[in-house]
């Protein structure tokens, strides 16, 4: 942060927006960069910044009629923060306007304080109604992403308008936390904004945070009890925990030592164990090949936009090509570690076909692997997520009435 204002929440929200939109930093890194801030202010700033990033196109559209010329970027951020509070977050008008004016002064933008005041007063009068009249799902989605999602684009972008619920995976026999809904695939869902650390099962080590869709790929390996399983790209360990809890002897590999340390902490809390390897999957090779491999490859993460709305603004089409090239190399490496006849599950939290089915078609041709298609019965209540080729492809618009889910692609291959 450069200069702090009187109101720590809005000041931090400004710092977060500026980090993402001006310096192209991921929101998590920007949050980590907020120094000396109370947890409550940090959480509130995160909520405001996420709302702005999620609804940026719509917020700009309701501000536009009140601006005679384009304001400098920092002033626009202040206006967006004020408009989000007024039109999306239900803040009292006087508080939203006066804190925005205060923020302008604190950020050395005092000469724009009158403009901020005048524009936000108008938004407080007509902003909510103006927002209603917009095609927000479309306005809040970059055109290239909208086009890439085909017929599902509107359903996906509509779900992106709101916050994601908190999904949990529970150990067998663990009690469902109060207010939790057991989903047909076994995950437990709690309302958005629930603090997992306050749940009894968190301290007791009986549950972990994992989106309902993210919990599906590891299950495609079938019964892993007593089997050696290689979890490539494993950190922070949501899928390692699933495999270990199901009785597998897991080797969890990740090239990022810090993320791998988090994986170990997560497993410790859960009373689970795995062998951990800090190495690059492209180079590392085991002494003995594995019958079961999970490759949860790094990707554009467009399936997690609800949780990480900055992805809307940071990703570019060329990122998809870069990810696809790395995914091919990781698939080659995984195939080289797979025993003849073994099972390889490839997964990405991406909605982009270039990172999903296209990678699998290319891998089958290049590596002599063949698909072991999923049956609809493997995904209770989610048959719509099984593609004609037998892959798993979820998107946020699925289970919309329950609050949606992350976008995941997974394919099961046989060596
Ligand atoms: C999608 S995340 C994995 C999430 C994890 N499977 C889970 O369920 O919690 C991708 C991971 O791949 C790791 N990674 C990226 N490139 C890698 C490589 N060449 N070798 C090993 N790990 C890699 C990253 O450090 C990151 O932790």
UniProtKB/TrEMBL annotation:
<dbReference type="InterPro" id="IPR049560">
    <property type="entry name" value="MeTrfase_RsmB-F_NOP2_cat"/>
</dbReference>
<dbReference type="InterPro" id="IPR001678">
    <property type="entry name" value="MeTrfase_RsmB-F_NOP2_dom"/>
</dbReference>
<dbReference type="Pfam" id="PF01189">
    <property type="entry name" value="Methyltr_RsmB-F"/>
</dbReference>
<dbReference type="Pfam" id="PF01029">
    <property type="entry name" value="NusB"/>
</dbReference>
<keyword id="KW-0694">RNA-binding</keyword>
<feature type="binding site">
    <location>
        <position position="280"/>
    </location>
    <ligand>
        <name>S-adenosyl-L-methionine</name>
    </ligand>
</feature>
<feature type="active site" description="Nucleophile">
    <location>
        <position position="349"/>
    </location>
</feature>
<dbReference type="GO" id="GO:0008173">
    <property type="term" value="F:RNA methyltransferase activity"/>
</dbReference>
<feature type="binding site">
    <location>
        <position position="296"/>
    </location>
    <ligand>
        <name>S-adenosyl-L-methionine</name>
    </ligand>
</feature>
<dbReference type="GO" id="GO:0006355">
    <property type="term" value="P:regulation of DNA-templated transcription"/>
</dbReference>
<dbReference type="InterPro" id="IPR023267">
    <property type="entry name" value="RCMT"/>
</dbReference>
<keyword id="KW-0808">Transferase</keyword>
<keyword id="KW-0489">Methyltransferase</keyword>
<dbReference type="InterPro" id="IPR006027">
    <property type="entry name" value="NusB_RsmB_TIM44"/>
</dbReference>
<feature type="binding site">
    <location>
        <begin position="233"/>
        <end position="239"/>
    </location>
    <ligand>
        <name>S-adenosyl-L-methionine</name>
    </ligand>
</feature>
<dbReference type="InterPro" id="IPR035926">
    <property type="entry name" value="NusB-like_sf"/>
</dbReference>
<dbReference type="InterPro" id="IPR029063">
    <property type="entry name" value="SAM-dependent_MTases_sf"/>
</dbReference>
<keyword id="KW-0949">S-adenosyl-L-methionine</keyword>
<protein>
    <submittedName>
        <fullName>Fmu (Sun) domain protein</fullName>
    </submittedName>
</protein>
<dbReference type="GO" id="GO:0003723">
    <property type="term" value="F:RNA binding"/>
</dbReference>
<feature type="domain" description="SAM-dependent MTase RsmB/NOP-type">
    <location>
        <begin position="133"/>
        <end position="415"/>
    </location>
</feature>
<comment type="similarity">
    <text>Belongs to the class I-like SAM-binding methyltransferase superfamily. RsmB/NOP family.</text>
</comment>
<dbReference type="InterPro" id="IPR018314">
    <property type="entry name" value="RsmB/NOL1/NOP2-like_CS"/>
</dbReference>
<dbReference type="GO" id="GO:0001510">
    <property type="term" value="P:RNA methylation"/>
</dbReference>
<feature type="binding site">
    <location>
        <position position="254"/>
    </location>
    <ligand>
        <name>S-adenosyl-L-methionine</name>
    </ligand>
</feature>
């Amino acid at each position: 942060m450069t200069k702090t204002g009187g109101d720590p929440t809005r000041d931090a929200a400004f710092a977060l927006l500026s980090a993402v939109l001006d310096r192209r930093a991921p929101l998590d890194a920007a949050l980590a960069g907020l120094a000396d801030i109370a947890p409550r202010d940090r959480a509130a700033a995160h909520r405001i910044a996420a709302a702005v990033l999620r609804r940026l196109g719509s917020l700009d559209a309701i501000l536009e009629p009140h601006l005679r010329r384009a304001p400098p970027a920092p002033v626009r951020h202040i206006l967006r923060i004020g408009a989000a509070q007024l039109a999306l977050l239900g803040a009292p008008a006087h508080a939203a306007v006066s804190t925005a004016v205060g923020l302008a002064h604190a950020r050395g933008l005092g000469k724009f304080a009158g403009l901020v005041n005048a524009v936000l007063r108008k938004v407080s009068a007509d902003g909510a109604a103006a927002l209603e009249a917009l095609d927000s799902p479309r306005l809040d989605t970059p055109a290239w992403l909208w086009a890439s999602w085909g017929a599902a684009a509107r359903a996906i972008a509509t779900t992106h308008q709101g916050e994601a619920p908190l999904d949990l995976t529970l150990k067998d026999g663990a009690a469902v936390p109060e207010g939790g809904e057991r989903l047909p695939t076994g995950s437990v869902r709690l309302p958005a904004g629930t603090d997992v650390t306050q749940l009894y099962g968190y301290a007791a080590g009986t549950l972990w945070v994992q989106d309902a869709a993210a919990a599906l790929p590891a299950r495609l390996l079938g019964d892993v009890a007593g089997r050696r399983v290689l979890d490539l790209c494993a950190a922070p360990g949501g899928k390692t925990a699933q495999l270990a809890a199901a009785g597998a002897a897991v080797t969890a590999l990740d090239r990022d030592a810090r993320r791998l340390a988090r994986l170990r902490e997560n497993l410790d809390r859960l009373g689970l164990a795995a062998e951990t390897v800090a190495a690059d999957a492209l180079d590392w090779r085991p002494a003995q090949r594995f019958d079961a491999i999970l490759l949860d490859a790094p990707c554009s993460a467009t399936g997690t936009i609800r949780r990480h709305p900055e992805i809307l603004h940071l990703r570019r089409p060329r990122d998809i090509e870069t990810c696809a090239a790395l995914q091919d190399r990781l698939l080659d490496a995984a195939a080289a570690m797979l025993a003849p006849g073994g099972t390889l599950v490839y997964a990405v939290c991406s909605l982009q076909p270039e990172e999903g089915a296209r990678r699998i078609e290319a891998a089958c041709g290049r590596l002599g692997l063949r698909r072991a298609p999923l049956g609809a019965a493997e995904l209770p209540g989610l048959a719509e997520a099984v593609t004609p080729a037998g892959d798993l492809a979820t998107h946020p618009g699925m289970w919309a009435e329950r609050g949606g889910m992350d976008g995941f692609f997974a394919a099961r291959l046989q060596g």
